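Chapter summary example.
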Amino acid sequence: MLRARVDVELDSPARCDTTVATRTRIEKSNIGPAYPAGRSVGQMAQKSIDIPDLTGQTWLVTGATNGVGLETVRSASRHGARVILAVRDTARGAVVAAELPGETRVVELDLGSLESVRAAGAEVAAESIDVLVNNAGTITPSRRETADGFEMLLGVNLLGPFLFTNLVLSRVRRRVVIVGSNAHMAGHLDLDDPHYRSRKWSVAGAYAQSKLGDMLWGLALDRRVRESGSGVDVQLTHPGWAATNLSNATASARLNRVITAVSGVFAQPAAQAALTTMFAATRDLPSCSYTGPDAMRHLRGMPTLIGRSAEASDPAIAEQVWQFAERETAAA
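The structure predicted for these 332 residues follows.
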């Protein structure tokens, strides 16, 4: 049994993190200060980063109708990009697309169904994509399964994006961004029982496992694109604690109200959280960098390069995750 324990955050994990010199240079760049401690979402002064003109670029963003994904497409469109919204709810996607200032396209993509993933991949097969942002994710209050029998969080957060990215990778010209989470620090990746069919399921454990999987999949993907000489690179991001609907994942309405109240004090608005994605998508960064907020233990603040766990930087474990994901998505 492979069990990856993640207990300690490292400032400079081996192989795919940045050097101290690079981190220092970016942290001193003109991206503004972190939020003062103690401000609520409503009180937070809106900060921004310099985003280049994206005219002529096409961005494909999954999960683009809510939260960080919505704010990502708003920002990309506002700066000139043509945006493809890959979404489960195409009616809602059409509403969002109509509100964006630039050219758009809406594609149906349900990451909980590999049939839908393959159909979406075929639908965009003729596109030239400058930036692919794997943003979509889910969290559930109880164990559920995807249409293909995968544990829901692993299926939607890892296996669906893994297959979709592989299907469209030949169309990507510049960068793949994977929205991860510092929840990976608490992750246990059990490839003997990844779908919790025998072991006890918990929302925290399942979510952390899926996000550790994202980090490792990103590492394995980065090695492959670098070796291919395609010119594409991979970037990983952590949006911090964002005030989005993912926060309300418990089965208790009362507890969800408490979480919402706490989020109102400590979380940052989705537009602020999306800055880490925009930073990762537009900055000249070392390949396979990991971007997150710079304050409150990377829960909020301005985007900078941050460390990841030792396991999330382990190329041997990354290869095992890649092989696992290949088997699962090929068999379903």
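To summarize the output: The beta strands are 3-5, 58-62, 82-87, 104-108, 129-134, 172-179, 188-190, 233-237, 290-295, 300-305.
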